[in-house]
Write a structure and sequence with these properties.
heterodimer; A: alpha/beta; Rossmann fold; 4-stranded mixed beta sheet; 7 helices; 23% strand; B: alpha/beta; 6-stranded parallel beta sheet; 22 helices; 12 strands; globular; binds iron/sulfur cluster
Chain lengths: 223, 482
C-alpha cells in the first residue's frame, strides 16, 4: 500500500468511516462551496469612511506610517517626500502595475528600476490588492505588476492602497478576491502585511527590522 | 538533540534546570514577555472568547472530515502546479525531502521555522547528505549556532540571554571586525540580518513549515514576524513545505477565524506581521517566486490519535500560550522536557509521538492548575489529557511507588466530589492564610522539591468550584441546569 493510501485508510479506520458516506461528502462539498463566514467581528462593521479611518489607525498602531494622497497623480510627489524625509537616495524599485508605472515620475528626481528586487534596493513600491481595517493589514498579491520580492527585500516598503479597496474585515476581502480571481483560484502568493518586520527572539524585547523591511509606509489614495 | 530524546530524564533535566542561574534569569522573560500582552490584546476584542469557540469548532469539523479535506487539498495543490508527497514516518519524510533536494542539485538550504522539521530531525539528515541547512528565524539561527534544540515552540531561544548570543556571534562570525560593538540587542539583530541576507540569496532550496493548509484553494500558510519565511520561500528555485496532516482547514474564511486567535494567544499581537498564503509555483507571467512547489504531508502517528482520548490534541495550532502560562515550564524551561515539544502541549503530545515508555514522566510535569486550558485558543483540555496519560502510565506500573499512592489518594477524592470540595476548600483557606502577607510561599511543608526553587503562589479567592458556584448564583441564566 502506498503511504498515501495507508494514511488515508488509517484516518478512516480511526474515525470509523469508509470515505464513501454521502452525508460526509455532501458536508465537505457544501462547506467548500459556500465558505461560511463564521463569527462577525463588530470592529470593522462601519460605514466605508469609518473603515478607512480605522485602517489607518490600526496600521499606525502596528508601527507602519500612513499618509493620505488625494489622487494617483500625487503618488510620485508623496514618494519623493518620503525618500527626502528619510535621507534616502532618489531611487525606487517598482513592478509594472499600470496604476503606478504609468504615472508622471519625470516631475520628481526619482530614478526608477523595474522588475523584481535583487536585494540591493533601499526602497520599493507595490500596489496593495486591499487593506483590512480590522487590524490595519495590507493584502498584497503576487504578479509581474507587483513582484513579491519588493514586499520583502528593500529596507523601506512603500505601498499604495486605494481607499475603495479597504474592507472592514478579512471575509469581505476574500469575497472581493474571489470575484477577481475566480472561486477556488488564488494568486501564487497572497501576503498579509501588518507592520514592519520585527523579532522578539532576543530576551523577548521587540526590535524592528529583522529580515524584512525596517519601515512600511502606506499611501492611501482617495479617488 | 531531537534525534535523541531525553524525555526519560525529565526529573534530572528539571533538577539541573532549576540550578542554572542563566536559565532562571532568561525564563523571567517568558512571564513578562507574553502573559500581560496576551491578556491586554484579548481584552480589546469583545468577540475573543466566542472566536475561541469558533476556532475549536472549525478544527473539530476539519478533523472529523480529515480524509476528505486532505483529498480536496491535494487535488487543489496539484491543479495549481504543485506536488503533494505523503510520509507515514519521520524517516519517509526525510527521504522525500532529500530526494527533492538532490534533484534540485542543492548545496545549501534555507529554512523557515518549523516544528515538524525539528520533529523529523531534518537538519541532521541534510548535514549527513552534504547539504548545508541554514535556519533563518533569528531564534532558530541562534540555537543552530549552539547546536541546541528549541526550548519554546514560538520563541526557540527564550532560554538564552543577550550576552550568550553575543559570544556565539563572536565565535561564529569570525569574518567580522573583532572589536565591533554588540552590547545592544539591536546590534545583534542587525548582524544576523546582514549575515543571513547573503544566505537567502544563495540558497538552492527553501524549506518552510505551515501553520495551516487550506483545502478550498490548496494553499499553505505561514505566519511570521520577521519575514524570514517569505525570503526562504520566495528566493530559491524550489520551495518545500513540510506539514503534519492535522494542519488542514476547510476554507479561507475558516482560517481567518483561527488567525484572529492565533497571534493574540501567541505573542499578544492582533495579527502577526506576515501571514502568507502560497498556492503552487511561480506562474507563467510571474517574475519572482519558486519554480517548484512541493508539500510533504507527515502523519507520524497522528492518524491513530483520531477517535481516541487524544484526538483533541490535534486541534493544537502551536501558539505556545499553554507553556507561557505554565508554572512548571516557567520553572524548568523547555529543554527539561527532553524533546521538541515542551510545556503542557508537549506533555500530552510527546508520549503519543514517542511512546509512553519513553516520555511517561512528562504528563507528571503539571500542577493541574488549569491555566493552560484556560488560555488555549482552541480549548484543548490539556490537564484532562495529562491525567489520561497518568492513569495510563499508572496502569502500566511504570510510576514509582510514591507516585502511585499519590494518584490513589487523588482518585479517592475525585470519586467523591463533595469530599474533594471540602478538602480543597480547607486547603485553600489554610494556604491562603499562611501566604497572606506576600501572596506567595517560599516554603511549603512536604513540597520542598518545588518551593526550594519556586515561590508557590498563594491561592486567592477560593477554589475554582466555589468560584464557579458563586458565579452561577450571581448570573442565574448562565449555568446549565444540573
Ligand atoms: S495546546 Fe493550545 S495553548 Fe498550547 S500550543 Fe496548542 S493551541 Fe496553543
Amino acid at each position: 500500500m502506498s503511504a498515501r493510501e495507508e494514511i488515508l485508510s488509517t484516518i478512516r479506520r480511526s474515525l470509523g468511516v469508509t470515505g464513501q458516506e454521502k452525508p460526509r461528502l455532501d458536508t465537505v462539498t457544501e462547506r467548500l462551496a459556500n465558505a461560511p463566514r463564521g463569527l462577525t467581528v463588530a470592529r470593522g462593521q462601519l460605514p466605508h469612511e469609518g473603515q478607512v479611518a480605522l485602517f489607518k489607525e490600526q496600521a499606525e498602531a502596528t508601527l507602519s506610517s500612513v499618509v493620505d494622497v488625494a489622487s494617483y497623480q500625487d503618488v510620485p510627489a508623496a514618494v519623493a517626500d518620503y525618500l527626502r524625509q528619510n535621507n534616502l537616495p532618489a531611487q525606487l524599485r517598482i513592478g509594472s502595475d499600470p496604476r503606478m508605472a504609468d504615472l508622471d515620475w519625470g516631475k520628481t528626481a526619482i530614478e526608477l528600476s523595474h522588475g523584481p528586487s535583487d536585494g540591493n534596493d533601499l526602497a520599493g513600491l507595490n500596489h496593495a490588492f486591499a487593506g483590512v481595517a480590522e487590524t490595519g493589514t495590507l493584502v498584497m498579491t503576487a504578479s509581474a505588476d507587483n513582484p513579491t520580492t519588493i514586499n520583502f527585500l528593500p529596507d523601506h516598503a512603500l505601498v499604495v492602497v486605494s481607499a475603495k479597496d479597504i474592507t472592514g474585515d478579512y471575509e469581505t476581502m476574500w469575497s472581493n478576491l474571489r470575484a477577481q480571481y475566480g472561486k477556488g483560484q488564488m494568486p501564487r502568493v497572497v501576503n498579509w502585511v501588518t507592520g514592519p518586520s520585527r523579532s522578539g527572539d532576543i530576551e523577548q524585547v521587540i526590535l524592528l527590522g529583522a529580515h524584512g523591511p525596517r519601515r512600511v509606509h502606506i499611501m492611501v489614495v482617495k479617488d | 538533540m531531537s534525534a535523541h530524546p531525553t524525555t526519560n530524564r525529565f526529573i534530572d533535566n528539571a533538577t539541573e534546570a532549576l540550578a542554572d542561574p542563566q536559565l532562571q534569569r532568561a525564563m523571567t522573560n517568558v512571564r513578562s514577555g507574553f502573559i500581560d500582552k496576551r491578556a491586554a490584546v484579548a481584552a480589546k476584542l469583545p468577540e475573543f472568547e466566542a472566536l475561541r469557540d469558533s476556532a475549536r469548532d472549525i478544527k473539530n469539523h476539519a478533523l472529523a472530515h480529515l480524509d476528505l479535506y486532505l483529498e480536496r487539498y491535494e487535488a487543489n495543490v496539484t491543479a495549481a502546479g504543485g506536488h503533494v508527497h505523503w510520509a507515514r514516518t519521520a524517516e519517509e519524510a526525510r527521504k522525500i525531502i532529500l530526494g527533492i533536494c538532490h534533484e534540485a542539485g542543492a548545496k545549501t538550504v534555507t529554512k523557515g521555522k518549523s516544528m515538524i522539521s525539528e520533529e523529523i530531525a531534518l537538519n541532521a539528515a541534510l548535514d549527513a547528505a552534504g547539504i548545508v541547512p541554514v535556519e533563518t528565524d533569528l531564534g532558530e539561527y541562534i540555537i543552530q549556532l549552539r547546536d541546541e534544540a528549541p526550548s519554546h515552540i514560538i520563541a526557540p531561544a527564550v532560554h538564552l540571554n543577550a550576552t550568550q548570543v553575543e559570544s556565539d556571534f563572536r565565535r561564529v562570525h569570525t569574518h567580522l571586525d573583532a572589536d565591533r560593538d554588540l552590547s545592544e540587542p539591536v546590534q545583534l539583530l542587525t548582524e544576523a540580518r546582514q549575515v543571513l541576507r547573503s544566505k537567502f540569496l544563495a540558497a538552492d532550496v527553501g524549506i518552510t513549515g505551515a501553520n495551516f493548509l487550506v483545502a478550498e484553494t490548496g494553499s499553505s500558510i505561514i505566519v511570521t514576524n520577521e519575514g524570514n519565511g517569505d525570503l526562504t520561500q520566495t528566493l530559491p528555485k524550489t520551495h518545500i513545505v513540510i506539514a503534519s496532516l492535522e494542519k488542514i482547514v476547510p476554507t479561507l474564511e475558516d482560517v481567518s477565524q483561527i488567525l484572529r486567535v492565533l497571534a493574540r494567544s501567541a505573542t499578544g499581537q492582533e495579527m502577526s506581521v506576515y501571514t502568507t498564503f502560497s498556492t503552487g509555483p511561480r506562474r507563467a507571467t510571474d517574475l519572482d517566486g519558486p519554480e517548484n512547489y512541493h508539500v510533504v504531508i507527515l502523519d507520524n502517528g497522528r492518524s491513530s490519535m483520531l477517535g481516541t482520548a487524544f484526538q483533541d490534541m490535534l486541534r493544537c495550532i502551536r501558539c505556545g500560550a499553554c507553556m507561557n502560562h505554565c508554572p512548571v515550564y516557567h520553572a524548568v524551561g523547555g529543554h527539561a522536557y527532553g524533546w521538541v515539544y515542551p510545556g503542557p502541549m508537549g506533555a500530552v503530545l510527546t508520549p503519543t509521538l514517542l511512546g509512553v515508555d519513553k516520555a511517561g514522566h512528562l504528563p507528571n510535569a503539571s500542577t493541574f492548575c488549569g491555566r493552560c486550558e484556560s488560555v488555549c485558543p482552541v480549548r484543548i483540555p490539556l490537564p484532562k489529557m495529562m491525567r489520561h496519560w497518568r492513569e495510563h502510565e499508572f496502569e502500566r506500573h511504570l510510576s514509582p511507588a510514591t507516585m502511585r499512592s499519590g494518584i490513589k489518594f487523588w482518585a479517592f477524592f475525585a470519586k467523591r466530589p463533595a469530599l474533594y470540595r471540602f478538602a480543597t476548600n480547607l486547603m485553600m483557606n489554610v494556604m491562603g492564610w499562611m501566604g497572606r502577607d506576600t501572596g506567595r510561599f517560599t516554603s511549603l511543608p512536604l513540597a520542598s522539591g518545588w518551593t526550594d526553587y519556586r515561590d508557590f503562589p498563594a491561592p486567592q479567592g477560593g477554589t475554582f468550584q466555589s468560584r464557579y458556584q458563586a458565579q452561577r448564583q450571581s448570573t442565574p441564566n448562565n449555568g446549565r441546569a444540573a
